[in-house]
Specification:
There is one protein chain. The protein contains eight helices and two strands, in the order αββααααααα. By secondary structure, it is an all-alpha fold.
Length: 206
């Protein structure tokens, strides 16, 4: 039984669909949805199948959806750990395919199923870019040149400066309101993403 691992592990996976993080010129097409979707202005795609754009109004909806997915995955992991037979293992894995998890998340979020999955992946793509930027900065910002001769140390500092200067800003080009919302909620969103990926991996191991 296939688990919903796609779109979670890195930026390459997340960009395989039409989702993207909204920029200063991109609107997030909405429609009139159910009461649960009011806060997010619901549907993230129009009837023409245009690319989806993440917007600040989607974040609360995505938090609800990912939280629901994580709760379902946590239950599955507990059931897998307690399973004593193949039948119990298969029962624990039921409902962990991509379509089922996306549907569960969409129902909790108030977004339509297609829009929810794409917007979640767009959010994860952005978080992956932030992770990459942070890792590069942590590695190159304060390089240790202890024991190096001055010429070698100078070259190391030059290379580090070039890498840092070339590291893309994951917030560059975003709509200012979206960039501000993502910065303010970075820790919360990253924790949810990390838990989601970890639980998917644990369930897959089962």
């Amino acid at each position: 039984m296939l688990l919903a691992l796609g779109g979670c592990g890195g930026a390459d996976d997340a960009t395989s669909g039409d989702a993207h993080v909204g920029d200063a010129t991109a609107d997030a097409p909405m429609d009139d949805g159910t009461d649960a979707a009011t806060d997010a202005d619901t549907s993230a795609a129009d009837d023409g199948g245009l690319p989806l754009a993440l917007a600040p109004a989607h974040l609360d909806a995505l938090v609800r959806g990912i939280t629901a997915e994580n709760a379902r995955l946590e239950r599955a992991v507990r059931e897998l750990e307690a399973a004593d037979s193949d039948t119990e293992t298969l029962a624990a894995l039921t409902g962990l395919d991509t379509e089922s998890l996306d549907g569960l998340g969409a129902a909790a979020s108030g977004l339509d199923a297609r829009g929810y999955g794409f917007l979640r992946d767009a959010l994860y793509e952005h978080l992956n870019h932030v992770d990459t930027r942070d890792a590069l900065q942590a590695h190159y910002r304060d390089i240790d040149t202890t024991g190096l001769d001055e010429a070698t140390a100078a070259e190391a500092r030059r290379v580090a400066a070039e890498v840092l200067a070339a590291t893309p800003d994951p917030y560059a080009g975003l709509d200012p309101a979206l960039a501000d919302a993502l910065r303010q909620r970075l820790a919360e969103l990253t924790a949810l993403r990390d838990a989601h990926v970890r639980l998917l991996m644990k369930a897959a191991e089962g």
